[in-house]
Amino acid sequence: MRLRLQRLEITPRQFELLTLGALAALTLIVVTGAAVRLSDSGLGCPDWPRCYGHVYPPLRSHALIEFSNRAVSGLVGVIVVVTALLAWRRRPFRRDLALLALALPLGVVAQAVLGGYTVEEKLAPGFVMAHFGLSMLILVAAVALAWRARTRVAPAGAGADSPTAWAVRALLPLATLVVFAGTATTAAGPHSGGLVGQHIKRLTFEGTDTLNWTVHVHGAIAFAFGIAAVVVWVLAERRQADAEVRRALTWLCILIAAQGVVGVVQYEAHLPTELVWVHVVAAALCWLCVLWAIAAAGRPEPGRERKPAQIPASAMARKS
């Protein structure tokens, strides 16, 4: 077995596809995790790692939903472990990819441990918020790995010039604030993740007005984020940044606009479960767009400025 592993080698293209699969799996677990919470199945299995003291769940809907999410998490764990192992069998070997790939299973293990504590603490708001925040951090590593593993060779000067690259990077702290405010809003809202009758702690730092306060603060930060995204998109267009940078920013602006509509509708409709789930999914996609735009923009370099468009010699001859 060890000899077979030593002989196993994968190509850069195969590893690239593997990293994209890992990124998709890590995004999927965010989506399914949100579904567990919003279906009030967060305590469907009140203990961890077992379910009601057994290795299999009882035939109850909430227990099955929660246990299914744990099973999906296990599958995601297998995918990221395989990715981390095969990073060492990639030829030619790249140390940066191997180290980034190692971060994925470590992050999933940390998620499993934090998830266990979250269940033990009866879905305390701080633990639930940290659980989602850690998922976003793992996606940072997954996007970085998928981007670095790409086999497409970028042409010289591709990406973005220094002002544009810095502007794109400036979106990340704003996106982080939006995500944090969003988790706080959910932690103050009616979707506690627990069954009716279960005592689940909620954020109440503003008393009975906590939900209304967090909704408006979250909305204000999201609005500022949307304005900033549009400004950066205009800058990237005017300075003719790489097409991939502009594509990521375009999708980001579209998703933020859609998020605004969904956010207003769900607030007026008193936070129906389905719309809240759509809002969470779109938030994860916005986060991915920001990360992809940053990766595509490249490193801000002082000497890297936008080159003026080259005028063909034939046009110059006609002009003279």
Protein described:
- Helix content is 69%, strand content 0%.
- It has helices at 2-7, 12-38, 61-86, 95-120, 125-148, 162-169, 171-188, 210-238, 243-268, 273-297, 313-319.
- It is flat, with a radius of gyration of 23 Å.
- Residues 307-320 have low confidence and may be disordered.
Poorly predicted ranges = 307-320
Number of folding domains? 2
- Gyration radius, in Å: 23 Å
> Helix fraction?
55-70%
Quote the average pLDDT. 84
Spell the H/E element sequence.
HHHHHHHHHHH
Number of helices: 11
Structural class: mainly alpha
Number of strands: 0
β-sheet strand percentage: under 5%
Give the biggest sheet: none
Shape: flat
Draw up the topology in text.
Blueprint: H1 2-7, H2 12-38, H3 61-86, H4 95-120, H5 125-148, H6 162-169, H7 171-188, H8 210-238, H9 243-268, H10 273-297, H11 313-319
Helix pairs in contact: 2-3, 2-5, 2-10, 3-4, 4-5, 5-7, 5-10, 6-10, 7-8, 7-10, 8-9, 9-10
Notable features of this structure?
320 residues; mainly alpha; 2 domains; disordered C terminus
Quick structural overview:
This protein is mainly alpha-helical and 320 residues long. It has helices at residues 2-7, 12-38, 61-86, 95-120, 125-148, 162-169, 171-188, 210-238, 243-268, 273-297, 313-319. Helix 5 (125-148) runs antiparallel to helix 7.
